[in-house]
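Same chain as my last thread, 267 residues:
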Amino acid sequence: MVINTNVESIAAAANLRSSTDMLAKSLSRLSSGSKITNPSDDAAGVAVSMRLDSQIKRTDAAKSNVVNAISFSQTQDGYLKKIAKALDRMSELTLLAQDVTKSNTDRSLYNTEYSQLTAFVTSNSMKDFNGVSLFSSTTLNVTLDSDGTTFGMAGVNLAAAAYTAATSSNISTTAAAVAALTTVKNAISQLASDRATIGAYQTRLNFTSEQLVISKENLAAASSRIQDVDVAEETTQYARYQILVQSGTAMLSQANSLPQSVLRLLQ
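reply #2:
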């Protein structure tokens, strides 16, 4: 039996230190809700979870872009609905102006309404959405996913020849009304095509938005499996480490008291 070096005490202190460290880590996991509180806990897991978290943020941004694009196209279609009604009335007026029982004075009255409707269509061509023109030939590239993939949403151009021909016509005479009917019918056909295209874009964007929501859920689940602590399991470990710390403290106390037995040999 020796006094200067208490081997049992040193071993007990080492065990207690190890148990205390594990208890502190378990407590940190439970308080933070994450099983990776330091990179050393899972170096590869930290790298993977960081990439997943970054992808989740980018997916959120892509979803925001898609939703805004849907709002843009819905606003477009809202204006085009009213333009469609204006063109319908214009086509009606072109036929009324061809009535052989009407004089040119009557036609001038029809033409006044026709002119106001053409002005209405023309004024709508200059509308914008948050500073972006609603009706131009510019193709808008919408971001579809976290990798920055885009798809081109072709612009609806109210300055196209089919529209300008109708808005620049008049029905002040029978001949003019006949010509105007052709141009208005062409404008209606172009508008029908443009609205169908917008509808197709909306369908694709709606599906894309739903897909992004699903992708985010899956990415979040994958990240959770790496980072989030299993509270039930960790609570069990915490209780275990608590017992080890308590028993280790008691055993260290016993180990420190062993040299005192040497005093009996000296008495």
